[in-house]
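> Could you send the 5'-3' exonuclease prediction when you get a chance?

Sure thing. Input:
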Amino acid sequence: MAETEPQRLMLLDTASLYFRAFFGVPDTMKAADGTPTNAIRGLLDFIARLVENHRPTHLVACWDDNWRPSWRVALIPSYKAQRVDYVSAQGEQVEEVPSRLEVQIPYIRATLEALGIAVVGAPDHEADDVIGTLSHRATMPVDVVTGDRDLFQLIDDSRGIRVVYTAAKGVGRADVYDEAALLAKYEIPANRYADFATLRGDASDGLPGVKGVGEKTAASLVTAYGDLSAIRAAAADPSTPMSPSVKRKILDSADYLDVAPKVVAVATDAPVSDADPARPRQVKDPERWLDLVELLELGSSAQRVMHALNLEPKA
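Output:
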């Protein structure tokens, strides 16, 4: 990493990436003891590709300390409810995760930490909220790497915050969204994306949206009236040109619209502890790293991420 490289912070939506790796890399990859390694190796390959393509000077793997925060569920009980596998004896709601991925997650964290990549979470918050908070605190441009549309709301050209969106074309050919790209796709400004998403809803997250209001109608409402409070005011005003059917849909969804904005909004004030986001210059724990590389037979994936990060073992 050259000393003169312009500073840029890359924030990884880690779970988004390791789920993608698990489903995209052959499940025949395994260690000698039978432990599956496709998600681990795929994630390391993804990080190598991202560093090579985007050249961040700072890098943080953002973690879901709670994939379904209690404060969001209290507002909308259906939030991610369809993903709950079971409730533990301690009352913890456990996400449905393929068993062959579940066994890899502790190794993923251990591998990143051994390399020296900061792994950061926040109590009772999702990785999205960690990303939102670190973006808010950042003193340099930010690339948010995710397959989650919710994070489009963070895009801000004035602060150099972009989204490297992996869901459509994968990590290697990911779309980079700034304000112009988001406007071209959805016909809304980035600072209104959360309002748009609240209206549209998201079945994958258990967010119903306003019944009968799809993506096009949501975008047209945001374009015509602005933020959600203005849209609701227009729906309640007989003199506005909003169609009667849309007005009725908005008014009928009052209970949902009272609470949904707090659920949809990515937190920018999560209790994220301080961590050094600088890209590591040396392997932080070389003994642990080599043990993991040998145990999991990470081979070329380990070599590639080491090369991309320009890492040397710690003396």
